[in-house]
Amino acid sequence: MLGQQDFDLVLELAERFRAIPSRGPRRLPALQGRLVATLFFEPSTRTRSSFELAARRLSADVASFAPASSALVKGESLLDTALTYAAMGAELLVVRHSGSGIPAALAQDLAAMGHKVAVLNAGDGLHSHPSQALLDLFTLARHFAPRQPTIQALAGRTVAIVGDILHSRVARSNLWALSAAGATIHLCGPSSLLPGCFADFLAAMPPGCDRDPVPRRGEIRLFRNLDDALTDVDAIITLRLQKERAQRHLIPNLEDYHRAYGITHGRMERCRAGAPVLHPGPVNRDVELSSQLLADPQRCLVNRQVSHGIPVRMALLYLLATTL
Ligand code: CP
Questions:
Q1: Ligand 1 mutation pick, 38, 47, 139, max ligand atoms within 8 A of CB
Q2: Which of 50, 71, 152, 171 has the lowest CB atom count within 10 Å?
């Protein structure tokens, strides 16, 4: 978990990496001769590809693990898989897993065995998705302060997070990141997807911490009604509705869900002028976001989030590699 200075260091580095011209030679020598392995035990498009592009832009070698065609199907364990990549020289393991806490447990096991390998969490269960929250923070900071995108750009702002908060690791990581930046957070969803206990979310300790490195955090407010939640907010982050939730009767049906919690141009009229909407992707069109809004780059920053994933993940790989 990051303190405010750490957030700013990541954002400052990401801004430098982002500013490298998108045409011509783009590779920096920072990780030349280093091996990054991406171990994704769950599907991914954005996170995996942007970590791999980020590693290559820093001149690292990349080993990409595909579970379905790996020795995992012969029964090899997660730890033995990681040890195999470590034996090939991987120093940075980017790990996504459906189990909450797996990347942290793997890092502990590898350290206990004496391996100098850093593990980067690329999304674990319902627990956290730190690099997504950092790229969301970077996208918002660049939106509010394009010349100087620091976390101070978020202080005193209000951000609504809408939808399936209960099952969202992106929401949990964003609660820690946005509150550290001093933003007020409006959480909005039906009680089946947003239990009342989320009002006290920040009373727990941040992941991996025995004390909170942030002295004063922004506050959380809970809403059931979307129009109330969006009134005077500076930005919205809406979340993917996992469609199987409808089958489990956590929502009535997708049409009703869209009517109650879908973000459209009309619903955004409640927000402050020019407020943008973000979504981590993949998007269910016309469920959590209207197709019309998705095609409007002035209000919808989804594509910008995706492109910011590369410089933010370059910053993370660079910072971790320099600690080894
Ligand atoms: N936002 C996100 O984690 O997307 P992917 O599942 O495509 O990586």
A1: 47
A2: 71
